[in-house]
Every structure is written in structure tokens, then in C-alpha cells.
Amino acid sequence: MEVKICGIRDVDAARIAVEAGATAIGLVFAESPRRVGPVEAARIAAALPPDVAAVAVFRYPSRDDVLRVLAAVPVDFIQAERGAAALAAEETGVPLLPVLHDGPGLVESLPADESGPVLLEAAGRGGRGVRPDWSRAARLAERCSLVLAGGLGPDNVADAIRRVGPAAVDVSSGVESRPGVKDAQRIRAFIREARAAGSDLSRPARFAPPVFRVVRAPR
């Protein structure tokens, strides 16, 4: 089970997440208590080992928003809603992790040829500790490689994995002591619970990890 710890704002928190077994680190560039500037984001990305992905997280960005960040920060993925971010991803060659928002018709709206990975969060926006409908998420996980986000924490991530069957899970507020401040014990507990639940999970081979495959030289 792959785990993305999102909303990392400093190198120390990134190192804690990596040592605990995180697969990916999310650097938030959208308006949020977890927003990080490009200088500090570049420091965090540079401190990651070669097999841990740095993910630039946006919310409905413009093409120029994405390009400015990518010019300053060595990231491996762009996470955002499709649109301008997809254009920037195509232009730069940095893979896009598309964000879907939960709601009626979610599964039916997925293109027939979509196999993912895609990230699902609650309706509206992420980072609020609100979870999507897990029954819809489970149906989505049968059709694509799903990164499940929203409302997850150490106390419910194992249940979410068993009920949804995602390829990866993503957490931000669920491992914080207060908004924007990561808690080392909660990060470790979250990853431990996710890995334990994921080890017993069966899923179609085409939707199995790795989601955050990193193909690059060491930073």
C-alpha cells in the first residue's frame, strides 16, 4: 500500500514521513494553511530519497501557476483538477495526477479508457478532513488505479482500505496536531495501519501499486 503524506511544509516533517515509510510527499501550492513557498518546497524536494515522489498540489491552477512552480521546484507529479494543469503536464513532461471530487455520477463520469491513477477527494475541496462516499470510491477503484483521500486518519485508514480497495491513500489533516502542523506519532501510526491493511488486500494486477513510480536520477 502506497502512502502520500500531503501538506508537508518543512524538511524535518518530510524526513519523519520518509523514515516512517511514505511513498510520496505532497507540497501544497494552493491557498491553504499548508501552503509552502517555492524556496522551502525546493529544499524539501531536494531532501527526498530517489524513490520517494515529490508531488506539487494545486487546485484549479492556471498553466502559468504550474509552470512557475515547476521552474523552481524539482517535482515528480502535478496533482490538480484537469484543465490548465493537464496542458502544463503535457508541456513539461511531468505526469499529472488528476483530482476527482466525489458526488452523484462520479463513476459514470469516468472516461471508459481511464485506468488511472486518479485521486478522489470529497466534494468541494481537499484538506478539510471530509471523506468521500466510500461505496462510490469502491466502485471507482474497480475501474482505475485509485488514490483515496479525504477524512482519513490512523483510526480509520485500515477500514477505508478494506472497504474501498485503493492502490494508495493520501492524508493531510488526519496526521496533524493543528492545521498545518504535522504530528510525528500520527504519521507513523497512519503509515503502519495503512501498510498492515494493504498487505491483505487483493486487487486487479493492473490497478496495483506502484502509483508514485519515480523514474529519475537522485536529486
Summed up:
The protein is 32% helix and 19% strand. It has helices at residues 11-20, 38-47, 63-72, 84-92, 134-141, 157-164, 184-198, and strands at 2-6, 24-28, 53-57, 77-80, 96-101, 118-121, 146-149, 168-171, 176-178, 181-182.
Give a structural overview:
The chain is of the alpha/beta class and 219 residues long. It has one domain: Alpha-Beta Barrel (TIM Barrel). The chain is built from 7 helices and 10 strands. The strands form 2 sheets. Strands 1-2-3-4-5-6-7-8 form an 8-stranded parallel beta barrel, surrounded by 7 helices. The protein starts with a strand and ends in a 21-residue tail after the last helix.
Furnish the topology, listing elements before pairings.
Blueprint: E1 2-6, H1 11-20, E2 24-28, H2 38-47, E3 53-57, H3 63-72, E4 77-80, H4 84-92, E5 96-101, E6 118-121, H5 134-141, E7 146-149, H6 157-164, E8 168-171, E9 176-178, E10 181-182, H7 184-198
Parallel strand pairs: 1-2, 1-8, 2-3, 3-4, 4-5, 5-6, 6-7, 7-8
Antiparallel strand pairs: 9-10
Helix pairs in contact: 1-7, 3-4, 6-7
